[in-house]
Design a protein that fits this description.
By secondary structure, the chain is α/β, with parallel strands linked by helices. It is about 40% helix and about 15% strand. Strand 5, helix 5 and strand 6 form a beta-alpha-beta unit. Helix 3 crosses helix 7, helix 8 packs across helix 9 and helix 9 packs parallel to helix 11. The longest helix is centred in the middle third of the chain and has 15 residues. The two termini are about 25 Å apart. About 55% of the residues are buried. The mean pLDDT is about 95.
Length: about 350
């Protein structure tokens, strides 16, 4: 485990190509989702055995494995953007509101499922680029949701670059879960969708959390949740961002004082194995997070069995926030018997 305190806490980085901070308009998300018959809240589960193991008073885990039948929090992202597009057409029959449109993306995991599901619901077409390292079983899951799957690129970043090129060449709509110079609007809306998960978790916590541990790949989940935590609870909760040490995109950018591209081996935390941060997420987290942690492959794997024993079985990516709690230096992060920690199980087993 490696630790970095955030020197930009409160003001944030300002040299990120004009990237906006994440949205905090949770009400807009709730209003749209209230019209969706597939929408239901997900549970917040107490994990007392894990709390005792970590030497803390309480550990609450927001369980996203059942989110809208897609198996992860990503159901609130791309599908939310596509739903907003459908409503904006003014069509009476939303099931065909986006007929003729094609959404294209790259995915290392559940984002592609959200694009595929959203496109199918509203009558659009979906194309998902996946890297050579993505298992064929995931490609089959995408096809089952109606997506056209294209193998492209050695890693996620190369797949996304190729998807962007294809969108430009063919007039498709690029829907990434990351953001970069010149591409901000759709990922900003996408991250807004994640506020539903954050709002539900904060509403269900028996007491305000003292700490919030958030796993990050490009940073969308972490950035959205952290922004709403600060809006609702102010400076009190200590927000800790957890990344694989093989993909320290946010950690290294904070350390460098600006956006950097990172390199590293392939991580078993596959959905977090992103070598470049989203600029919107980095803008928010540089302002809102207190600490950044890098965990090893072994530390992530070590959290799988105790999570499963609590009925919270997940992948290395899904349990990474809890892995950060278990691996953390308690004194360094102010963790103790009076601590109440909120984490997110972002997906089920791989």
């Amino acid at each position: 485990m490696q630790h970095l305190s955030n020197p930009f806490r409160g003001q944030g980085l300002t040299n990120l190509s004009g990237a906006p901070a994440p949205s905090t308009d949770a009400g807009a998300v709730a209003k749209l989702l209230a019209q969706c018959p597939a929408h239901a809240t997900t549970p917040l589960t107490s994990a007392p055995v894990l709390a005792a193991r970590a030497g803390i008073g309480a550990l609450w885990v927001k369980d996203e494995r059942g989110r809208m039948g897609l198996g992860s929090f990503k159901a609130l992202g791309a599908a939310y953007v596509i739903a907003c597009d459908a409503v904006a057409t003014g069509a009476e029959d939303l099931s065909t509101a986006l007929a003729g449109r094609t959404y294209i993306t790259a995915s290392a995991g559940n984002h592609g499922m959200s694009v595929a599901a959203g496109a199918r619901i509203f009558g659009a077409r979906a194309i998902v680029h996946i890297a050579e390292t993505v298992p064929e079983s995931f490609a089959e899951r995408l096809r089952a949701k109606g997506a056209e799957v294209v193998r492209a690129g050695a890693e996620y970043e190369a797949s996304m670059a190729l998807a962007a090129e294809s969108a430009e060449a063919n007039g498709h709509i690029l829907l990434s879960d990351s953001s970069w110079p010149g591409y901000m609007d759709r990922p900003h809306r996408l991250m807004e969708g994640y506020l539903q998960m954050a709002a539900e978790a904060l509403d269900d916590c028996p007491e305000p959390p003292t700490h919030v541990f958030l796993q990050a790949g490009v940073g969308g989940l972490a950035g959205a949740v952290a922004a709403l935590v600060r809006k609702r609870l102010g400076d009190a909760p200590r927000i800790v961002v957890v990344e694989p040490d093989a993909a320290p995109a946010i950690f290294n950018s904070i350390k460098a004082g600006g956006f950097v591209t990172t390199t590293g081996p392939v991580s078993a935390m596959g959905r977090l194995d992103c070598k470049e941060a989203s600029l919107i997420a980095l803008t928010g987290l540089s302002r809102d997070a207190d600490d950044f942690l890098l965990i090893t492959e072994e530390e992530a794997a070590d959290a799988l069995a105790p999570m499963a024993a609590e009925g919270l079985e997940g992948s290395e990516s899904g349990v990474a926030g809890v892995a950060g709690v278990l691996a953390a230096d308690a004194a360094l992060l102010g963790l103790g018997p009076d601590s109440r920690v909120l984490c997110f199980l972002s997906e089920g087993p791989a």
